[in-house]
Amino acid sequence: MFLAKKLQHFLIACFFLLSASTFLSCVAEHEIRILHMNDFHGFAMPYKPYGSDEAQGGLAYLASRAENLRAEKPTLFLAAGDMIQGNNWANLFQGKSSIEAMNVMGFDAMVVGNHEFDFGQAVLRERIGEANFPILGANVVGLNELKPYIVKNMDGITVAVIGVVTDDTPVTTHPKNVKGLKFLSTEETIKKYIQELRKKSDIIVILSHAGFSADTELARKVDGADIIVGGHSHTKVAKPVPINKSFVVQAFEHGKTLGVVDITLKYGKVVDVSGYLEPIKPTGKQNKAVEAIVTKYQQKVDIVMNETVGEALVDLDGVNVRLQETNLGNLITDIMRRTTGADAAIINGGTIRTSIKKGLVKVSDVYAVVPFDNYIVAIKLTGQQIRDTLEHGVTGVEDEEGRFPQVSGLTFTYDIKGKKGSRVKDIFIGGIPLAAEKEYTVATNDFLAAGGDGYKAFGDSVKSSRDYAVIGGAMRGEKLVYIDSGRWLRDVVIDYIKTHKVISPEIEGRIKEIKG
Fold first, then answer.
1. Is the pLDDT confidence value at 14 over 80?
2. What is the pLDDT of residue 464?
3. CB-CB contact of 214 with 191 (8 Å)
4. Is it the case that residue 3 has pLDDT exceeding 70?
5. Nearest Cα to 185, choosing from 158, 159, 201, 208?
6. Left (φ > 0), alpha (ψ -120 to 50) or beta: where does 341 sit?
7. Is the pLDDT of residue 471 over 90?
8. Does domain 307-513 sit in CATH 3.90.780.10?
């Protein structure tokens, strides 16, 4: 009898020990923290953004600050996509440098961004395999290395993190990079997994690379998400935005800020959410391990990139390329038009990723501006197809989307208040009004020529050719009149600057917004 009672007491004690975390989550007040960053794009070194004389960012400084913040309370460290591509520090190593640093920083999870696909699926699989943390993509079908979600126990609180990437990914990377993959609706995907996870999670976090507008719309339409940690639109969200019962956050770009979200729970329910953006500047302490990784790869970059190719007499604006004509957009499209002998040139503003300050121009500057492995092509388009192309280009100007056009050899006006699809008004090529039935030669890059960023007129023109074929990844057809798949656009730009030595492009009124 005595032994039986001792056994009973022992089993009761075990029960309470095993269920302590569950008991605490239901009774005690808890605080947890989420640290987040997005759209890093490989900007590991501090730099002076266009229009600023103050250096910002620096991954080793961010890592040090994150380490201090994590020490204060149970913390999740999340990355909302576009981490491995963009700046030379990442591009020259196809993102390997980013993953190595993130491993040391102790990220808990990352959602795949559209630019994670830019080096192709084989490279992405390598990066996923190197990561010491899960990379999520619940709405991506066909890439089994991506996980739909993770569940973490944080001091007795169960947190589920569901990762989704914009379902526009097939048009925001080169189509060949996503061949065989399907990108499901972010909304329907999240509904599915919230239903699965809600009953066994105290907190549900959506780790989203879909853009701030899409995230706020998601918060309005989908119940059950507590926090939506976003990326893709490079939005600087100073503090959590409450929408219905969710809070939407995003931490700008390039590691210039670190997002901090503090969540308070009572009886297993979220009762308070607060947060802020921590500015990151090259002052104070650096994380020594991350600093060593940043330095190691930067030294390799410097060997290649430090060659001076010419001089810019003015600042070259790569910031406003999604909103308006810029002198840098004019320079690059002029180079493309002259290289191909085309009547006009059109690229998406998203091709241009950063600015170049007045002064000496190095190889590294040009590689940062046009980092993608794109080459120049020229295609025959009718006047109507050109109009359709420009109409598509201005449909997302309100949201500063990357399809906004930069042009050469043509001018056009548009009404931002007009109905999408009917915004473009006057178009002139070579100073002569556009003729709808006439055929023109238009220079672009292979990304747009394949229908990237939704530019269907280019892809339709080439694919409608009766002798269309794909040979070694290069498109050939009777509508395609120029192709140089052996030279990246950035190398053509470098050669141009080397030849001319001095550049000073201007705004010329090529794109004019009609203001009623």
1. no
2. 55
3. no
4. no
5. 208
6. left
7. no
8. yes
188 CB-near residues (< 8 Å, 6+ apart): none
4: pLDDT strictly greater than 70: no
Q: Quick one: three-class SS letters along 357-382? A: CCEEEEHHHHHHHCCCCCCEEEEEEE
Distance (Å, whole) CA 5 – CA 8: 5
Residue 99, SS3 per DSSP: helix
Is 431 a residue whose pLDDT tops 70? yes
Does position 442 have pLDDT exceeding 60, yes or no? yes
Please, which residues have CB within 8 angstroms of residue 376's CB and are 6 or more apart in sequence?
336, 339, 340, 443, 444, 445, 446, 482, 483, 484, 487, 489, 492
> 102, 92 in Cβ contact below 8 A?
no
Q: What percent of the chain has pLDDT over 90?
A: 83
Pick from 459, 429, 445, 434: which is nearest to 490 by CA? 445
d(CA 148, CA 201): 15
pTM, full prediction: 0.77
* pLDDT of res. 472: 36
Nearest to 492 by CA among 393, 381, 367: 367
Q: In which residue ranges of the chain is CATH 3.90.780.10 found? A: 307-513
φ and ψ at residue 286, rounded to 5 degrees? -110, 150
Distance of CA 457 to CAs 207, 340, 389, 419, 447, Å? 34, 19, 6, 20, 13
**Mean pLDDT confidence for 348-353:** 96
Domain with CATH 3.60.21.10 in the chain: 62-297
As a whole number of angstroms, the distance between CA 412 and CA 161 comes to 45
CA atoms of 303 and 472, how far apart (whole Å): 31
> How many beta carbons lie within 10 A of that of residue 342, not counting itself?
25
The rounded distance, in Å, linking the Cα atoms of 497 and 375 is 17
Angle (CA) 277 134 60, round 5°: 45
| End-to-end CA gap in the chain | 93
- pLDDT for the residue 15: 47
Whether the pLDDT of residue 41 is over 60: the answer is: yes
- Length reported for the chain: 516
Shortest CA distance to 107 belongs to which of 273, 290, 281? 290
What is the three-class DSSP state of 245? coil
- CATH fold of 62-297, please? Purple Acid Phosphatase; chain A, domain 2 (3.60.21)
